[in-house]
Design brief:
Elements: E1 3-7, E2 10-13, E3 18-25, E4 33-39, E5 46-52, E6 58-60, E7 68-73, E8 78-83, E9 92-99, E10 108-109, E11 113-118
Parallel strand pairs: 2-11
Antiparallel strand pairs: 1-3, 3-8, 4-5, 4-9, 5-6, 7-8, 9-10, 9-11
Length: about 120
């Protein structure tokens, strides 16, 4: 079993930056990869970014490409989301998720961390 704990959310002005962290505990993560999702009020959860654990290849949604960077530290079992040039529309609860197999859905989820961007 893998537990995911996010941290780093908060309130920031438009144009500012935040870095989210997601630490995996329980056992060393050895699955396919990890990702970040977000859910704004009254909206469905949407994909933000993902990273393959072995090799580190990344993929981003168009809405964050060029502004957000996902990275991982395999020694710390931690994935990061560096967010720059934040916009009010980035306001959401951000969730970390882990996927054991590439072809399967994400099977572990964190509790979420709130990011609020003021205009």
């Amino acid at each position: 079993q893998v537990q995911l704990v996010e941290s780093g959310g908060g309130l920031v002005q438009a144009g500012g930056s935040l870095r989210l962290s997601c630490a995996a505990s329980g056992r060393a993560f050895s699955g396919y990869g990890m990702g970040w999702f977000r859910q704004a009020p009254e909206k469905e959860r949407e994909f933000v970014a993902r990273i393959v654990w072995s090799g580190g290849s990344t993929y981003y949604s168009d809405s964050v490409k060029g502004r957000f960077t996902i990275s991982r530290d395999t020694a710390k079992n931690t994935v990061y989301l560096s967010m720059n040039s934040l916009k009010p529309e980035d306001t959401a609860v951000y969730y970390c998720a882990a996927k054991t197999y590439a072809s399967m859905p994400y099977d572990y989820w964190g509790q979420g961390t709130q990011v609020t961007v003021s205009s």
